[in-house]
Amino acid sequence: MNKATQLLVLLEENGDEIVAIESVVDTRDYEEGPDDKWVPIPGSGDKRCCDRCGRNHEIHWQVTVKDSGGKKESRVMGGGCAQQMYAVIDTKEVKSLASASISIKKMETQLAAYKALLDDYKKIKNTVERQSVPDIEEHPPEFSNLIKTLKIKVGQDKYIQDGVSKSQKESDVRRDLVSRYHDSKVLDVIKQKYSGSIRIGRFKKPQLLGLLFNSSLENRLVSNIKPLERSLDKQRTKLDKLQKSAVKG
Ligand SMILES: [Zn+2]
Predict the structure, then answer these.
(1) How far is the CA of 18 from the centre of ligand 1 (A)?
(2) What is the DSSP string of the chain?
(3) Which of 57, 157, 171, 246 is least enclosed by beta carbons within 10 angstroms?
(4) What is the CA(81)–ligand 1 centre distance, in A?
């Protein structure tokens, strides 16, 4: 038993005592706010009556309560009641347990949104890549160090172009042009589908679409997903530890 746990001493008047915090479940939905921070949607959670005070709460603390006769039972409370009843002199650990649970919920929602967008991107890319590609046109070199200039039409009078120099393989330049052609077609579909901006939750995310012009959405999303998955793992490990240490006796 650790020090913080030993400090958990106060009993309810009727002798009931919380001996374990089984879980803290944040039932609210999250969305990306205008400032890029992920925030809970007010009222989106599952409102449940606290077993102790009867007030509604959306973050459910599932606790094990032991009565004066030693009988244990599971109850669900709001955070305020659970913390009061847990009778913690040093509430730090219990607070971190709750905040770890809440961050996990938030990160899971965030991760799911990025993954859904990534999936959608991949689907669109697959469809685009199955369509036929216009012929690559060959033009006289535009600079003296080029052998020729290659152009591929992406829209009305719009071309993607590149020159082949003596040091380059023409097949590499052609492959690169086709891949840039696909990127531009994918971008067209996404722009149309998301009507000018990518929307996650209630908020439009024009900045996400803006990123498409600089780097591929796929890379951008993957680079958001990787660190998020790592922090999520860390939080889960932390929560696991906290939950173990929040068991008394
Ligand atoms: Zn309560």
Answers:
(1) 13
(2) --HHHHT-----TTS-EEEEEEEEEE---EEE-TTS-EEEPTT-S--EE-TTT--EESEEEEEEEE-TTS-EEEEEE-HHHHHHHHT-SS-HHHHHHHHHHHHHHHHHHHHHHHHHHHHHHHHHHHHHHHSPPPPPEEE--SSTTEEEEEEEEEETTEEEEEEEETTS-HHHHHHHHHHHHHHHHHHHHHHHHTTTSEEETTEEEHHHHHHHHHS-HHHHHHHHHHHHHHHHHHHHHHHHHHHHHTB--
(3) 157
(4) 4
